[in-house]
Amino acid sequence: MSNWKNFERRVAKKVGGKRIPITGRKGLDIDHPTLDIECKYRRKLPEWLFTKAWSQANEGTGTPLIVVGEFDNPKIWCIINLDDLVSILNNGDKDEKYDD
């Protein structure tokens, strides 16, 4: 089984969704009642973002969050650890069935 399929399964399990097989897909990777989830799995993520910025985001006492934007583009993007997002969506209660 391919690594990206396993990654999609892990994500679906953590958020309480279901992986959509390629044969039934029109766009999204995970079927979820609230979130529209598209998964991207790469061998290596950008170091400046996921090592340096993530380290800085972890210096405080709250939930780490990286917020990025692009020059001349009004959209603002957030990057958060999936376990932290699940906890927030569950009102701070960590649901054990979504743990690895």
Number of DSSP-assigned strands? 4
Number of domains: 2
Compute the average pLDDT: 88
Structural class by SSE content: alpha+beta
Distance between the termini: 18 Å
Using only C-alpha atoms, the radius of gyration works out to 15 Å
Residues in helices, as a percent range: 25-40%
Q: In order across it, which strands form the biggest sheet? A: 1-2
Low-pLDDT regions = 96-100
List keywords for this structure.
two-stranded antiparallel ribbon; 100 residues; alpha+beta; disordered C terminus; 2 domains
Give the topology:
Layout: H1 3-15, E1 18-19, E2 30-31, H2 47-57, E3 66-69, E4 76-79, H3 82-89
Antiparallel strand pairs: 1-2, 3-4
Structural commentary:
This protein has 100 residues and is of the alpha+beta class. The chain folds into two domains: 1-42, no CATH class; 44-100, no CATH class. The chain is 32% helix and 12% strand. The chain contains three helices and four strands, in the order H-E-E-H-E-E-H. The chain has helices at 3-15, 47-57, 82-89; strands at residues 18-19, 30-31, 66-69, 76-79. A two-stranded antiparallel sheet has the order 1-2.
Quick structural summary:
With 100 residues, the chain is α+β, with helices and mostly antiparallel strands.
